[in-house]
Specification:
Elements (H helix, E strand, L loop, with lengths): L4 E7 L5 H14 L4 E5 L6 H5 L8 E4 L2 E5 L2 H22 L4 H7 L5 H16 L4 E5 L5 H5 L3 H11 L3 H16 L6 H21 L5 E7 L3 H16 L4 E9 L9 H18 L4 E5 L8 H11 L16 E6 L2 E7 L8 E6 L2 E6 L2 E6 L7 E9 L2 E8 H8 L1
Parallel strand pairs: 1-5, 1-6, 2-4, 2-5, 6-7, 7-8
Antiparallel strand pairs: 3-4, 9-10, 10-15, 11-12, 12-13, 14-15
Length: about 400
């Protein structure tokens, strides 16, 4: 059996992405696909939207349809228990109270990261034809899954040496530092997590079966955040196959909301221009809350034409791809219409200005490149490849 069709919905909080995800799942199930819709948002609202009580495991909520609100705590216990126990005991021994110690053993953002690993289990189970994911209100967590080269470096270089290093360090740590170094179970947890992240990265970058859809309302601040998220998704190799603009006022709203509707129409034009050629889906501002089967089906009918809810709505390859290494990074940009010639790069804060034969492009770089500088670029087969190195290394090369 092939991989299931997987769609991840993300966007700023309050734009209706949970309703859009639930509506998509209902249409997939109605089309005959075994479908699970799951929420990885710590503030779950999927149960409320569906009008069904959901748990940490998939719950049948209709013909060919299951719902799930992933428990971050259960996922952490499955993936991080050894690290939590060791680090918690270490903090308590240093005078930190137990409740605070438990909180400090989980880095920010890790709870949703563990929740996303549920997608991997659904892919491996073969039980579903479609997996619809209501992500937390940000695209940032997806970036945590985007470092396979660094993760592989740790597996190749660090973990094979861990036993000898710890055996040599334990007597010193006990006698001088009065600390307990982690045991094998701690490193087993970390190694398993790293391997899972590598596998998740491979799943999410499978553009034939997996795509991300950005949900927004036609408001300038919301659209601006969606554009930033879109840049990150492209940079890290994820395919965005559609953007969804929700709660659009229709002409029937009258004069009272006329000025607001006019501003929304301006933002719709901005969205089309910013995300083209990625298609834009629209849904109106309904006359009642989108909760329950009937309203979800109205939303689904507004968004999708017959049979296209599960299909990839855009097939163009990802135009940017970022690969991080232990000693730097490589950024690959698709420039299919550029001709070979002089290439110039200029870094201004978080922006990278790329010029090729008079063509200029200004890109907002992700925080992962804050300490790296561009050191070279090549243009080949319609793609520009830019190399980045640590600032000190780049300076030495310039000297």
């Amino acid at each position: 059996m092939g991989a299931p069709r997987t769609i991840l919905y993300t966007g700023k909080g309050g734009v209706g992405k949970t309703s859009v995800a639930a509506a998509t799942a209902r249409r997939c199930a109605a089309a005959g696909l075994r479908t699970v819709v799951l929420s990885t948002d710590p503030a779950h609202s999927l149960s409320d939207v569906l009008g069904q009580s959901l748990g940490a495991e998939p719950t049948a909520i209709g013909e060919l349809l299951w719902g799930q609100e992933v428990s971050a705590q259960e996922e952490m216990e499955r993936n991080w228990a050894g690290v939590q126990d060791w680090l918690g005991d270490l903090l308590i021994a240093r005078g930190v109270d137990r409740i605070s110690a438990e909180e400090l053993t989980v880095p920010p953002g890790m709870d949703e990261l563990f929740s996303l690993l549920t997608i991997k289990r659904h892919h491996e189970s073969g039980e579903y034809d479609a997996v619809i994911v209501d992500c937390a209100p940000t695209g940032e967590t997806l970036r945590l899954l985007s470092f396979p080269d660094v993760a592989r470096w740790w597996l190749d270089k660090v973990f094979p040496q861990q036993g000898r290093i710890l055996d040599a360090a334990r007597p010193f740590a006990r006698a001088v530092l009065d600390v307990s170094l982690p045991g094998a179970e701690v490193f087993d947890d970390v190694q398993r997590l790293v391997r899972n992240l590598i596998a998740m990265n491979e799943i999410l970058r499978d553009n034939e079966h997996v795509s991300v859809r950005l949900v927004m309302t036609p408001d300038r601040m919301v659209v601006d955040e969606a554009r930033r998220t879109f840049t990150y998704l492209n940079l890290y190799g994820y395919l965005t196959d559609a953007v969804v603009v929700n709660r659009v006022f229709g002409a029937e709203v009258g004069d009272y909301f006329g000025a607001w509707r006019e501003r929304q129409q301006e933002q719709l034009v901005s969205v089309r221009d910013a995300f083209a050629p990625v298609p834009m889906l629209q849904a109106p501002y309904f006359d009642e809350e989108v909760v329950g089967e009937a309203m979800l089906d109205r939303l689904g009918d507004a968004l999708f034409e017959d049979g296209d809810e599960a299909h990839a709505l855009h097939h163009r390859s990802v135009s940017e791809r970022l690969e991080l290494r232990a000693d730097g990074a490589t950024l690959r940009l698709e420039l299919p219409f550029a001709e070979k010639g002089d290439i110039s790069l200029k870094r201004l804060g978080a922006e990278l200005i790329v010029r090729v034969d008079g063509h200029k492009r200004t890109m907002l770089l992700p925080p992962a490149l804050d300490d790296l500088e561009p050191t070279g670029a090549t243009l080949k087969d319609g793609a520009l490849t830019i190399s980045f190195e640590p600032v000190a290394t780049a300076a030495a090369a310039d000297g």
